[in-house]
Design brief:
It contains 14 helices and six strands. By secondary structure, the chain is α+β, with helices and mostly antiparallel strands. Among the domains are: about 40 residues, no CATH class; about 110 residues, Glutathione S-transferase Yfyf (Class Pi), Chain A, domain 2 (Up-down Bundle). A four-stranded mixed beta sheet has the order 4-3-5-6. Helix 4 runs parallel beside helix 6 and helix 7 runs parallel beside helix 11. Bound molecules: glutathione (GSH). Glutathione (GSH) binds next to helix 6.
Amino acid sequence: MMTLSVDPATDRLLSTYVGKTNLCYNRLFTSRSRTRIAMPAISLKRNIMTLYSSANCPLSHRVRMVFAEKHIPYEKVEATEEQVAEDLGELNPYASLPTLIDRELVIFNSQIIMTYLDERYPHPPLMPVDPVSKAQLRMLLYRIETEWYGVLDDLKGEDEKKADKARKSLLEGLITIAPALEDTPYPFLMSETFTLIDCTVAPLLWRLPSYGISLPRQARAVEEYAERLFARECFQESLTDEERELR
Ligand SMILES: N[C@@H](CCC(=O)N[C@@H](CS)C(=O)NCC(=O)O)C(=O)O
């Protein structure tokens, strides 16, 4: 670990410029006095981005899909708990996965990582350009994260009642998107082209058998959509060994 020392004058300057680096952003949440900030040597030396990723987590999975779709070179660290504590402890206040390190920039939320990659590597674009379509897709992304990803802890938890309720809620949600996939010439969800929405839904669809969910006949369009996503090169490339074994 390399330790940086920040003097109060520099500190004030940094604090006025939140956008410059994560280092500065993180400072807003740390002590106000003279502070020592530990940075792993990896983030300062490497030209290549490092993704700390879980071997089997839909949030890490959707980020890996974005890397694969855009053919972005990166180093993937399939992080163990010890690595998370050791390497990310000082950089990510939540010690959560996925975490992206791009030189001095540290991002620790999967949606923010995906958006950053989409903006930094614009081709192929994974979000529409026009504000109305973009807002619509963002709303959908928000709902999927809240209503589908939001029940996963219960679904995988030990409380059977909560798990059943979560399973039912996720299944109902998936059934509701069937008409949107049936009455459209679009191969993707609400879009003619592959987007961040597809990167977000595919990891969930892949895990349905492991969640004890099977899609009913009325959701046939969802099943077909899932097959299209699973056949995509970026999806196959994004899978870890552990995820491959889920089906
Ligand atoms: N909102 C965050 C949530 C990240 C999150 O909860 N990740 C889980 C793994 S799927 C985690 O790191 N949990 C802490 C742990 O397992 O110790 C994101 O989208 O990245």
